[in-house]
Amino acid sequence: MIVHIVAGGPEFYLPNLSEYKEEGDIIWVGVDRGNIHLLNYGFIPDIAVGDFDSITAEEYDLLKEKNINIEKHPPEKDETDMELALTLAFSYNPNRIRIFGATGGRLDHFLGNLFFLINLKERNEHIAFEMIDRKNLIEVKQPGTYKIKRLPDKQYISFIPITKNVENLTLDGFKYPLNNRHIFFGSTLCISNELIYNYGTYSFSKGILLVIRSNDL
After folding, report:
1. Lowest mean pLDDT among 37-51, 82-96, 98-112, 135-149
2. 26 pairs with which residues across the strands?
3. Whether 24 contacts 2, CB under 8 Å
4. Structurally, how many domains does the chain consist of?
5. Between β-strands 156-161 and 69-72, what pairing exists: parallel, antiparallel or unpaired?
6. pLDDT at 96 over 80
7. Measured distance CA(2)–CA(24) in Å, rounded
8. What's the domain range around 87?
9. Do residues 176 and 169 touch, judged by C-beta distance below 8 A?
10. Rounded to the nearest 5°, which phi and psi values hold at 88?
11. 155-191-147-145 Cα dihedral, nearest 10 degrees
């Protein structure tokens, strides 16, 4: 089971959501204005969640007209709309959660979503978390060995430690290889690397990494 969450960030930064349509058993969750983004792509959200303070009354009526399952919350609440959406996503027992529309707008929302995602990953190792926009694919990774494929549209790969240290980071098949290197929070050593083959591998034994795949286009 895969859950796709579409938040209300600027539509310009969304990737082509149609590319993620035919992947089998998928639940689409719209978060506030993200529901309008989904409708614009021709998707009917399986469920809409949020306080809906970023859409008009007419747009909200449109969601109701389409008989979408709406989970509406008051604006005065402790959780963000994204937290509510992620909690909902867990109820489907997914093996992967992808988040769209969570970048490119307000920086406080982006950082809040990112760090909440990191905390979730620490408690849910079996779930793959990705945050995707038209220029970036962000993954949260725990210790292990991973095979990575070259993506023509996202040639740059950065490894950013988000814990105090990441130990024994090894990069094979990269332009700038590493062998059992310790890197620390705030390090820029592993920014903007590239694969030299169609596939490479990376591994580390301790810490949490953000793996960010990007392009300049």
Report:
1. 98-112
2. 2
3. yes
4. 2
5. unpaired
6. yes
7. 8
8. 2-134
9. no
10. -65, -40
11. 180
Query: Within this chain, do residues 21 and 62 fall inside the same structural domain, yes or no?
Result: yes
Within 8 A by CB and 6+ apart from 145, the residues are: 201, 202, 203
3-state secondary structure of 54: coil
Give 23's pLDDT tier (boundaries 50, 70, 90).
Answer: low
User: What local confidence, expressed as pLDDT, does residue 206 receive?
Assistant: 94
For residue 217, the model assigns a pLDDT of: 67
Say yes or no: 83 and 167 in one domain: no
> Are 23 and 42 in the same domain?
yes
Q: Please give the share of the chain, as a percent, with pLDDT higher than 90.
A: 61
Asked whether the whole model's pTM tops 0.85, one would answer yes
Binning pLDDT at 50, 70 and 90, where does residue 27 land? very high
Tell me how far apart the alpha carbons of residues 138 and 132 are, in angstroms, rounded to a whole number. Answer: 6
Helices (H), 92-161: 107-123
**119 and 165 in one domain?**
no
- Looking at residue 184, which CATH number applies to its domain? 3.40.50.10240
Whether residues 107 and 22 share a domain: the answer is yes
Asked if 120 and 195 sit in the same domain, the reply is: no
Could you tell me if 118 and 170 lie in one domain?
Answer: no
